[in-house]
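Final report, Chapter 2: Outcomes

The project's central promise was a pipeline that accepts a single protein chain and returns its three-dimensional structure in a standardized token representation, suitable for archiving and comparison. That pipeline is now operational. To close this chapter, we reproduce one record exactly as it appears in the project archive, with the input sequence first and the structure output second.
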Amino acid sequence: MAIQRMDNVLIVVEDLDAVISFFVELGMELEGRGPVEGRWVERVIGIDDVKQEVAMLRTPDGHGKVELAMFHTPTAIIAAPKEAPANTLGIRRIMFAVDDIEDVVARLRTHGAELVGELAQYEDIYRLCYVRGPEGIIVGLAEQLN
């Protein structure tokens, strides 16, 4: 049997409000937010005594979701280095298609975001960049050209 769809990507954060604001500014919609705890979640993630707050955000088309989790207990573990470069093993970024890349970058900068490299153009197809937001989260932005 094949998978049905990719449901969401989880990002563990320390400042849930700041990261929600960043993704809302990007254009995502807050779908819900609330506490998550109990034996069922402990069994799923393999950690005892879990108390966390979770927020689910969705893209405007409703197909893509980002889940944010802030752990109250146990304390979240910080990976090293915290602001890892693009060639570090593991998930490095989430890519979003945008209408106006310069506008999006400018709006995200009001939330502390910085370009990782430069805004570059790939042939006559895309303008692309990576932006590092709160807590070192990297999002890729792609504006398709005519």
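Archive annotation: Strands lie at 9-12, 29-37, 51-58, 65-73, 94-97, 114-115, 120-122, 126-132, 138-144.
This record, like all others produced under the grant, will remain available to the consortium after the project formally closes.
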